Structure formats: C-alpha cells, structure tokens
Amino acid sequence: MASLNDVSTEDLRQVLAEVEGKKPTQRVMATINYLEEDEATLEDVAERYGYAAGWLSRWLDRLERLADEPFEEVVYDEHHSGRPSELFDQQHDKFVEALHESPEEVGYDAPAWSVPLARHYLAEEFDVEYCERHVRRLMSEAGLSWKTTRPEFDKSDERAQEAWQDGFKKRDNLDDEYTILTIDQTRQVLSTLIYAWFPEGERPSLPVTGAWDSIKLLGAVSDAGETFFLPCTENFNSDTTIRLLDALQTEFGEKICVVLDNAWYFTANAVQEFVEDTLIELCYLPRGSPELNPAEECWRQLDQELGNRLFDTLDDLRDAALSGLNRIEVPDVFTYLCP
Fold first, then answer.
1. How many CA atoms lie within 13 A of 113 on its CB side?
2. Given pLDDT bands bounded at 50, 70 and 90, which one contains residue 2?
3. What is the rounded distance in angstroms from the CA atom of residue 133 to the CA atom of residue 115?
4. CA 339, CA 334: separation in Å to the nearest integer?
5. What are the domain boundaries of the chain?
6. Bridge partners of 195?
7. pLDDT reading at 259 higher than 60
8. How far apart are CA 175 and CA 162, in angstroms?
C-alpha cells in the first residue's frame, strides 16, 4: 500500500473544508484518521465509516498514484471527459433559471441552493445524473458562487426602528387586558455546525448530513415571560399563521397584541381577513429588524442546544428541539420592543 509520505494532514484539513458529498468527505476524514493515529489499522479506520479495509486501501493507493494532481480533483469520483451533456438546451436554460430563484420557488424547503440540492433537482426534474463536481461546474457557469449571506438587519433603518418603538410605547388602542406576544419562525435541519470552543491547534471534525429535511417551528414570547411553540409539518404559509393565532388566543385569551415580522405568510390577505372579526391586534416590526424581536433570542439559544449534533431522524430532532426549548432563558419582551 502507498506510504503517503508527501501527504500533509494540514492540507487534508483545508480540503475537508471545501469538499462536498458523503463519499469525498469520508475519504478525506478517513485519510486524516489513518495518518494521525499511529496504531490505527486499515480495518479500524474503514469500519468507522461502514466499509471494509479494502475500501480505504484502494482510496489511499489512488491518492498516492495521483499525488501530482490537485487533491480537490482526486477526491471526487473520476469523471470521464468527452461525455456529452444529458441536458437539452431548453432543460439547461430551465436549470439556470431555477438556480437564480429561491429553491422554495421550485418546491424545496431550503433557503439557498447547494450542490447536493441542485444535483437532486436535476435528477428529479430531468432524470439526469451528474457527479457533484460536474454540478458545481454547472452552477459556476450559471453565475453562482460560494459566499456567505449577510444578516438582514444590516440593512435596517435605525430611524424607522426608533419611530416604531416610540409608537409602540404609547399603544393608545390597547387596554390593560391585552397580552403582548412576539412571534417568529425557525427551521432546524438534521445537522448544523456552529461555533464552539475547542483546544488551540486542533480542528475537530463532527458528523453532518447533506440532507435538507427539516422541522419547522412557530414560537411566541409573552410580556409575562411565558412561551408557546407550535411544530409545523408543512412549509410556513397563511394557514399555519392562522392556526398559530387561534392557538395563541386559546392559550392567552382573546385579547392579544401580536408583534411579528413582515414574512409573506404573516402579512397575507387570509391572515388579515381572519383577524378582522377578532380581538387580535397585529403589530408589524420595521422591515429588516430581527434584533427587535425577543423570539429570535429563543432560536439563538435553541441553535446552541442543537448545534454540532447529528440527529438520525426528524422525530429525534423534534424531540430534542422541544426539550431544549423547555430549558431556554426566556427573554424580556420590553427590553427588545421599548428599551
């Protein structure tokens, strides 16, 4: 078997941050394990990833054989050059058009496109199977690039926020019997990596999954320090908002003032029509102002509870989320709404 004398674990860790897909990730991680653990055998390392020793031996031999090639290319399954595209021109145009829209527009519950999601879309929509490296190239050619999003509150208008807070402090149309509630929504996937504290000089690896299956939660925080959380099986829509408002009246009484953001499923006509004949007052935050909503603090604490963990099923994730929400420190509504 190859000696791998020229392979650096430092380089491998840099590659690990870039590769996508289960097989490439396993190959890199297994190589790191094998090189860093002096007494590790091929059998021991391969078994961790559900394979026999031959799998790791063949991969290490390939790595040594192609040592002069860019590692980012070697780690993926070989792509046969000259293979004609299986997408017709019209299909390719539709694919590019979909990439420039939110995945939700084509029926996926995901905030942005990823290589595995785009690959799944090609297979489902056009019955075309491409390796992830080829899909990545198609996405790049379509004008997409790998980058980090900015929080929306970077665009918030401080003067609009101050005016809103001043107006909310008065609340002339509400009597003392009203309960003030702030509501918000979140989506949790089976595995999410978050920042945590680790020893210096180490770069820990944690198990993740490329699946985009998720649970959805709607939550509320009251001015009395109470919370209410409603799991959703479907994507957020006006019906889920109405169901939440109805549940909040059952929980807190008919007179409720609900503070919420401007998501379309909160502002939909169906929602406005529902509250017309109720004692519910809807109070919309200025656009791009999540920092004014104390419910966001609940989700931040939930992220800390669930982050850096891998859940096998959505039921496991849902149970852990609801259990974690029972342990959060409930934020003070007025600290956020009218400091």
1. 27
2. very low
3. 9
4. 6
5. 9-74, 89-141, 153-337
6. none
7. yes
8. 23
Cβ proximity of 171 and 238 under 8 Å: no
% of the chain beyond a pLDDT of 70: 88
CA 246, CA 233: separation in Å to the nearest integer? 17
Q: Provide φ and ψ at 259, rounded to 5°.
A: -95, 130
| Ramachandran assignment for 278, one of left (phi > 0), alpha (psi -120 to 50 degrees), beta (any other) | beta
Identify the three-state secondary structure at position 281. strand
Q: For residues 51 and 29, what is the distance between their CA atoms, to the nearest angstrom?
A: 13
CA nearest neighbour of 257 among 283, 278, 237: 283
Counting every residue written for the chain, the total comes to: 339
Element (H, E) at 268: none
Q: State the Cα–Cα distance between residues 81 and 95, nearest whole angstrom.
A: 22
Which of 187, 186, 263 lies closest to 221, judged by CA? Answer: 186
Cα(82)–Cα(289) distance, integer angstroms: 51
pLDDT in tens, 197-244: 777 777 677 777 766 778 999 999 999 999 999 998 888 889 999 999
Type of residue found at 73: E
Pick the closest to residue 218 from 322, 313, 306 (CA basis).
Answer: 322
DSSP code at position 152: G
Q: Is the whole model's pTM more than 0.90, yes or no?
A: no
CB-based burial, 197-219: b 16+ in 10 Å, e otherwise: eeeeeeeeeeebebebebbbbbb
> Which CATH topology does 153-337 take?
Nucleotidyltransferase; domain 5 (3.30.420)
> 214 near 199, Cβ under 8 Å?
no
Say what the pLDDT of residue 80 is.
41
pLDDT at 295: 96
